[in-house]
Q: What sequence folds into this?
């Protein structure tokens, strides 16, 4: 049987051993933890910080002095950062927003933008989309017309309108009598020189009356619809009689035609690829934001939100212009 004195001695020995082991453990931990190069108000400056500063200076062409000078710069920088963080300047909402924007920009460039830039679209994806939406790549029937035009309005007398009609008819007949001469053996388009001398359409008269390619399925023509429809009904190279429209009199010629056709996959593939890449990038962005919000705890105060208001944007009134005569009432000569 162990005596009470022996039990007490044993407990003391156990405590001493336990304390010695714990002390050794703490000593080893202290020895394992590397000491920093310096501390500024408890914030460590490490060898890694020093190495990064050397690398940064090398890459930017900044001078690298001795190690003590570099360390001193790091110490001063850390001291200023701490002072700035606790200053009134950092409490300014404008300054805080600018710093937040920079932080967000850096983060997004290294996260969301990396995911967006990684988006790829394969040839098979382009082909599948093209085949599923082929109707969207049908090129409509196109016609190309040339016109002779003379003004004539509802307020003109019958004699005036008849005179304009006769002049336009004479121009038509002159072209049909010698198409090769009017177009200089085909070197000019449409009605050639006849248009320049007899048509009043300012845009087309010096281009042989050519008004370009027209989509026959459209209804927003610049020229009257009945003139376009008359031109569509013609054979290529044929010329209409004089046509009465709401803005005057016309003679129209069909100079060319293209049948409706489906654009080939090869011709639309570059645009399709860009479209699909944009769609995928938008999906990446939506998913990125959805995941971000799902990971966040968001609380909204509906009562306060109900009282939020946004100031209305007023449309500025146009300036009142003062007549020049009021600015210089005594001037005899005109103002420049």
A:
């Amino acid at each position: 049987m162990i005596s009470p004195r022996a039990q007490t001695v044993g407990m003391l020995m156990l405590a001493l051993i336990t304390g010695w082991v714990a002390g050794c453990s703490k000593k080893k931990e202290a020895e394992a933890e590397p000491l920093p190069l310096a501390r500024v108000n408890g914030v460590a400056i490490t060898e890694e910080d020093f190495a990064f500063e050397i690398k940064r200076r090398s890459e930017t062409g900044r001078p690298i002095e001795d190690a003590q000078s570099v360390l001193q710069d790091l110490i001063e920088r850390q001291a200023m950062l701490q002072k700035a963080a606790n200053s009134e300047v950092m409490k300014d909402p404008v300054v805080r927003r600018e710093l937040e924007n920079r932080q967000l920009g850096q983060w997004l460039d290294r996260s969301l933008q990396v995911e967006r830039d990684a988006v790829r679209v394969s040839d098979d994806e382009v082909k599948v989309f093209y085949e599923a939406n082929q109707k969207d790549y049908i090129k409509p029937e196109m016609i190309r017309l040339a016109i002779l035009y003379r003004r004539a309005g509802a307020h003109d007398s019958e004699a005036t309108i008849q005179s304009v009609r006769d002049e336009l008819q004479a121009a038509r007949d002159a072209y049909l009598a010698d198409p090769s001469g009017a177009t200089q053996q085909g070197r000019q388009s449409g009605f050639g020189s006849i248009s320049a001398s007899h048509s009043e359409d300012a845009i087309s008269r010096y281009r042989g009356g050519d008004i370009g390619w027209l989509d026959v399925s459209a209804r927003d023509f610049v020229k009257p619809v009945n003139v376009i429809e008359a031109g569509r009904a013609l054979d290529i190279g044929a010329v209409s009689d004089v046509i009465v429209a709401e803005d005057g009199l016309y003679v129209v010629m069909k100079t060319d035609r293209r049948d409706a056709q489906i654009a080939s996959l090869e011709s639309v593939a570059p645009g399709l690829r860009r479209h699909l890449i944009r769609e995928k990038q938008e999906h990446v962005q939506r998913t990125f934001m959805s995941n971000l919000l799902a990971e966040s705890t968001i609380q909204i105060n509906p009562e306060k939100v109900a009282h939020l208001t946004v100031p209305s944007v007023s449309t500025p009134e146009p300036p009142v212009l003062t007549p020049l005569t009021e600015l210089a009432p005594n001037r005899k000569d005109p103002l420049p």
